[in-house]
Design goal:
Rossmann fold, globular, five-stranded parallel beta sheet, 2 domains
Amino acid sequence: MSCLLLVRFSSIGDVLLTTPLVRALRARHSDARLVFVTKQAMAPLVADNPHLSRVETLAPGEPLRALGRRLAALDPTQGLDLHGSLRSAALRLLVPCLWRGYSKRKLARGVLVSTKIDLYRHRVPVAERYFEAARTLDVRPDGGPPEFSLGEAARARVARWTAERGLDGKPLAVLAPGAAHFTKRWPVDRWIALAERLRARGYGIAVAGGPDDRAVAEPLAPYAASAVGDFGLQDSGALLARARVAISGDTGVMHMATGVGTPVVALFGPTVSQFGFFPYSTKSIVLQRDLDCRPCSAMGGPRCPMGHHRCLGDITPDDVALAVERLVA
């Protein structure tokens, strides 16, 4: 029996975008042991994935050599480096087997950001780029979305949470106003105006995000029930799974929504489709503005280089509310 390692240490969206490859590998190699390798904090994203044989995690502060010893003991036949980082490169040296990776298109990305010259010959989503690492394993994308499998305990906790906050019996919209970088955040006043419009249309509103998003989410408190910073990954996924629609920037929450089958309105500012992170193979609407200054960075930044932040500021609450209506019609 072959043993395949799939290595992606972080982050939320990147990990979930590997799951179409996981699904394809299981379908083509039904007897293989598929071992997913990730950071301990990311493990809930794949812990319940039915296509995986096991999940091996790197704990905070744990030496990489310790993880390497555990993986080498599994006697892997092939490793798929789906991260392409210094850490994953070091792991390749620690675990003897045939290793394959994929292209991050760093040159094309850098040229597009710095000169706005588009060297991307084909716009291949990241979920499909990962298949390059499995080029010798006879697998192809099946056209399906990412998978975020949820445990029953998370579903039960969130069912209680929504009932206690009076969110049952009405369509639920989940808003995700946070983002790691300022330039990926839609202005807070726009989120408030959107929440008012959705409430007027009969929606119950919940807010999702991590601990770092609390300050951004706080102004929404009069309009929405907030799970920001209180829910782990599984509970956040279960909340999204109960929603009629999710509205998010270019963040992990967007990919979590696609992974549980919830339609998503995605707001894209400094980043563009060529980078490969648009909602993958799911019901979605992407709102963006065609500006000469886009893209201004690969992952967002602390300030708008032009000083106006029009890429997101020009998207209005009415634009988003209309997109929600079109998406859930």
